[in-house]
TrEMBL record:
The species this protein was found in: Methanosphaerula palustris (strain ATCC BAA-1556 / DSM 19958 / E1-9c)
Protein name: Peptidyl-tRNA hydrolase
Reactions catalysed: an N-acyl-L-alpha-aminoacyl-tRNA + H2O = an N-acyl-L-amino acid + a tRNA + H(+)
Keywords: Hydrolase
Annotated Gene Ontology cellular component terms: cytosol
Function: The natural substrate for this enzyme may be peptidyl-tRNAs which drop off the ribosome during protein synthesis.
Highest taxon of the lineage: Archaea
PANTHER family: PEPTIDYL-TRNA HYDROLASE 2, PEPTIDYL-TRNA HYDROLASE 2, MITOCHONDRIAL
Pfam family for this entry, one: PTH2
EC number: 3.1.1.29
GO molecular function terms attached to this record: peptidyl-tRNA hydrolase activity
Family the UniProt entry places it in: Belongs to the PTH2 family.
Transmembrane parts of this sequence: none
Length: 120
């Protein structure tokens, strides 16, 4: 069996578990979070992340408050963030905070912030 590659960088995408959103809606919100957070990332970190294959981990948070708290802690750690607010055209009310993108950043730094969150 081949050895698994070691990823030094990754991006964490976090969606609210307390909202009733279809699978497709969650995917769209997480895609928004991924693109927007990557746009704000450090150029060197982003380059390394791209070269490794752009690892992403999708997690869930229990509430809007949890997303905001995670965002604050990430920003204090120097990690790029992107909070997604929905336009309200389909499944949720306008302005609803649905997801958070973190990084790309060093995997170890993100693990310290998101290690307690379950996978989606």
């Amino acid at each position: 069996m081949a050895e698994e590659p070691e990823f030094k960088y990754k991006q964490c995408l976090v969606v609210r578990a307390d909202l009733k959103m279809s699978c497709g809606k969650k995917c769209a919100q997480l895609a928004h979070a991924a693109v927007m957070a990557a746009e704000h990332a450090d150029k060197g970190i982003k380059k390394n992340w791209f070269m490794e294959g752009q690892k992403k981990v999708v997690l869930k948070a229990p509430s809007e408050r949890a997303l905001y708290e995670l965002k604050v802690h990430a920003e204090q750690a120097g990690i790029s963030t992107s909070l997604v607010q929905d336009a309200g055209l389909t499944e949720v009310a306008p302005g609803t905070v649905t997801a958070l993108g973190l990084g790309p950043a060093k995997s170890a730094d993100l693990d310290r912030l998101t290690g307690g969150l379950p996978l989606l």
